[in-house]
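User: Just a sanity check before I run the rest of the batch. Below are the structure tokens for the first item. I only need the designed sequence back.
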């Protein structure tokens, strides 16, 4: 049984055949499509020839039916190729149908042209059609056996006993030869497809590995540059970016805003640290929403948030945002046992009016925050 399985699978494993089956089916359909183009031209030429030289109605009907069948088959193949799924069963049925049409053409030629010409059929069927496709041996075997019995039946109806035996011998010889040659051809084709598939798999694996490494680098950079809870820049990254902006745009006006949550310690003590983290996240979302995408945002740990606007042309617009943020930050939390009220204490400084370095701007803005906190208390 092992050697039979080895023969049917061309010496490859089932998984290897499965990997290349879609490519194999697509190649076979493209081959069938090209053969159909040739057959349509041949049948159309025969139809024209019979119309001009011998107006035999049955010949014209058969040629017309053959052209119509091939056109329908061509449409089916086109639709199959355009679909994302090309099943093996559908491919084999299409090839078998095409084989039957080719066989019918051969029988038609042999029957109506000359009884001796019927011997052309096995050569056309067994030695050409099967060899142009790249199928597994079991598919070739089914196709060949169906065609052989059809051929033998037609030969039996149209030939005497001697010629019928001759046709069967001729057909069986062609059958064995075509089976062997199709086996060799399919093995070479599938071997090349498997090699190509392995190269693609290695290439895809290398690409996936590259993207996974890039993803890890991005995630690492995210952890290094950003505060995990709020998504704001951390202290070091925020400071570097502000210094860079001040250095590159020293002739423009900038605004640095510092803030601190009033009574945040009491929130943690009364409601727990998980609720405290939720409060910080909600405050960060509110800051992001009010300040807008042009604002550089940072968290310095705990309940300290910083904001930076570059290239400010209208300071009153920033002051309105600060006033709105201060107003919206007032919230009261009640757990049934105690009530806690929080709000943001804010202070800002402007470049170059209040300072020309990041350190000077931060010091002044931070002092104004604590002035506001003292007034709040």
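Assistant: Here's the designed sequence for the first item:
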């Amino acid at each position: 049984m092992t050697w039979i399985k080895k023969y049917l699978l061309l010496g490859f494993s089932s998984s290897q055949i499965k990997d290349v089956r879609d490519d194999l089916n697509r190649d076979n359909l493209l081959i069938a499509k090209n053969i159909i183009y040739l057959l349509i031209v041949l049948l159309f030429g025969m139809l024209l020839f019979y119309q001009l030289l011998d107006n035999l109605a049955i010949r014209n009907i058969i040629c017309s039916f053959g052209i119509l069948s091939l056109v329908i088959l061509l449409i089916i193949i086109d639709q199959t190729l355009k679909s994302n799924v090309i099943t093996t069963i559908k491919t084999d049925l299409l090839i078998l149908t095409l084989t039957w049409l080719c066989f019918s053409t051969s029988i038609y030629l042999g029957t109506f042209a000359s009884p001796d010409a019927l011997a052309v059929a096995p050569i056309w069927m067994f030695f050409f059609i099967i060899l142009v496709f790249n199928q597994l041996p079991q598919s070739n075997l089914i196709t060949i056996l169906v065609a052989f019995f059809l051929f033998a039946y037609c030969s039996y109806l149209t030939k005497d006993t001697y010629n019928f035996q001759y046709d069967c011998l001729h057909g069986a010889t062609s059958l064995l030869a075509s089976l062997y040659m199709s086996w060799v051809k399919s093995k070479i084709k599938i071997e090349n497809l498997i090699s190509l598939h392995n190269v693609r798999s290695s290439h895809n694996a290398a690409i996936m590995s590259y993207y996974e490494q890039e993803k890890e680098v991005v995630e690492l950079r995210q952890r290094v540059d950003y505060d995990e809870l709020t998504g704001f820049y951390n202290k070091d990254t925020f400071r570097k970016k502000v210094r860079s902006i001040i250095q590159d745009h020293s002739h423009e006006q900038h605004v640095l805003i510092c803030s601190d949550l009033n009574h945040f310690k009491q929130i943690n003590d009364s409601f727990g640290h998980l609720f405290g983290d939720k409060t910080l996240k909600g405050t960060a979302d509110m800051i992001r929403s009010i300040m807008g995408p042009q604002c550089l945002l940072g968290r310095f740990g705990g309940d300290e948030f910083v904001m930076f606007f570059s290239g400010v042309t209208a300071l009153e617009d920033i002051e309105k945002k600060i006033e709105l943020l201060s107003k919206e930050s007032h919230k009261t939390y009640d757990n049934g046992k105690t009530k806690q009220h929080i709000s943001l204490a804010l202070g800002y400084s402007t470049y170059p009016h209040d300072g020309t370095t990041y350190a000077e701007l931060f010091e002044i803005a931070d002092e104004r925050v604590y002035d506001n906190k003292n007034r709040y208390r």
